[in-house]
Specification:
This protein is α+β, with helices and mostly antiparallel strands and about 220 residues long. It has 9 helices and 9 strands.
Amino acid sequence: MITYDALQVEGLKEVLQNIASACDHLDIDFFLVGAVARNIWYVHGGKESSGTRDIDFGVFVPDQETYSELKKYLIKKFGYTQSPDNEFGLDTEGKRIDLLPFGEIAENGEVVVEGRGMTKIKLDGFKEAYLHGSIDTVIEEEAYKACSIPGIMILKLIAYDDRPDRRAKDIKDISLICKYYPDIETNLIWEEHNDLYDEDRNHDEVGLIVLGREIKK
């Protein structure tokens, strides 16, 4: 079982419970993306997770009104505040919560909202990652959806392509995932992709090809 301590994200339990309450109230769904989803994978694989101040969620919303109501609920009921430089972010006790809306709210892969600071974001791939790349995760007996590692890779590549001048950290995360993937996913590689060893490749090379195959799905 994954523990909150192992994920090394201060205040994560309370934030998850808040988001779950708000989404349940509005009858919408969400999943963990970004650093927390990556840390879940690290912990599952026996690697040490790395801390983060940002907690990112993909929220499946039909329209602008529902997205606005989600933020208002969190602000009114739990004391969150709107981030001054980013309409997709809320702040609480020194933490940034990014609520990344996808679904029917998006037009041509982008979501544009009213407000100040950052009001437009490119979210190609979020719906696909949610429908085909989310995994059920239990954290101290509480069940949540988290983005799979192939899904995280896609979203990080898209995010970097959208804003390369501000997303250098995504490249570092992608590099670490490539480094750890062959070791963490050894069972998957051997059980479902052993044909790749026929051409005298080493395990790390095979692992990266498998990651590509999983991303392609």
